[in-house]
Design brief:
single chain, mainly alpha
Length: 204
Amino acid sequence: MLAFAALSYTSRALEGKPAKNLLYKWDTFGGNLFQYAVIALIVYGIAGLGNRRQLFALRRPTSWQLAAGIAVGIGVGMLVLTATLGPLLTPGREQGFTPPSWQPSHAAAYVANGLVIAVVAPFVEELTFRGVGFSVLQPFGAWTAIVLVGLLFGVAHGLVEALPFLAALGAGLAYLRYRVDSVIPGMIVHGLFNAVSLTVAVAH
């Protein structure tokens, strides 16, 4: 993850912000799909060194009710953080993926890219960070794992202004995984978060 973070920060420093119409391009869809496939294969191979089922935590949560309550808490926490830091930081603008307006002629590409971001990305990233990552770090203490997983999730995206938001979301999802012993609720919350962000981006 630190290697991916280094590549992301280096790429951003050399190339600057990505074009705002990236999600309207099929090349973006193919590139992101390939990237997540590579990450998934690497993580699957790493998990093979131990008990994959245990490391991934890809199992039914101990309590859906508790998971729902924590999910609401994560949502409220992110809203508060956005309201507090939003005037100072511009994470959406920094990431550069947000298109300036809705373009119906490119709707198919946007939906395809949206599915990658709202379905594929949460699945792969939850298995990576809250699955294997959390399992590897948990022996050092639950809260150590929660904080470190959050920070790693943040820096892996290669962003600066968005780092506090991503780290908070990553830590919140790690806490959810810890409390219900499963990555499945985190995948759902992560997917909904990304889907709402994509919808809001073109709704104005």
